[in-house]
């Protein structure tokens, strides 16, 4: 006979497995993929090394933020995974105001974190993306807990299994989405048109901005394949550095 203790232990084990999966893929995306983004976009590991030596460790965070700011799908999936890591548990509904009002309060509180991430994604990529992010995160957040409440002390329900599988699918999709963002050929930082002097006189060149210094920028010259100082810069119309890997 399944006891309440067995049920709680099973649920705790499932929750820990899900959190571990989310933490693992999140760590891989945050640590490794920004470096891959820089290396593949510039075409070589030596170029990536020079970028990181020139701009320092901030290039890593710049690459990560650039990927999120320029790829709506990555921002949405990343927000959903992070939202799943924020603890939330249904207790009993508040007694004040009656059962219906109590559940409304509980469901409204569950919306706070998904709504916050939805607003962030919406501000970056449009409100359609923000709304989709908030709804998916909310359904995964609440569906699992509602399924566990209906489950009681019995075996996991079909809805509980579906909710768990969907959460793991989203976590597994994150590295694939991040890989696509790394290989899409778009710059992680603004591409500028600058006057660059490499010893033969000033020339207009496309430059990936690494940092701003005084009246100009320190960047990576796309034609000379080296770190350069650029002045009198303007944003380039084309932010694509190379063709996506799927078009090669």
User: How many H/I helical runs?
Assistant: 9
How far the N terminus sits from the C terminus, by CA atoms, comes to: 60 Å
The beta-strand count equals: 4
Order of helices and strands: HHHHHHHHHEEEE
Q: Unreliable segments (pLDDT under 50, ≥5 consecutive)?
A: 4-8, 91-97
- Biggest sheet, strands in spatial order? 1-2-3-4
- What profile does the largest beta sheet have? 4 strands, antiparallel, barrel
User: Strand pairing plus helix content: what structural class?
Assistant: alpha+beta
Give the overall form: elongated
Quote the average pLDDT: 81
Radius of gyration: 23 Å
Q: Estimate the strand proportion.
A: 5-15%
Portion in helices: 55-70%
Description of the molecule:
The chain has 248 residues and is an alpha+beta fold. Strands 1-2-3-4 form a four-stranded antiparallel beta barrel. The longest helix has 28 residues, at 4-31. The termini are far apart. Helix 5 (72-85) packs parallel to helix 8 (127-151) and helix 5 crosses helix 9 (158-182). The protein has nine helices and four strands. Strand 3 (216-221) and strand 4 form a beta hairpin.
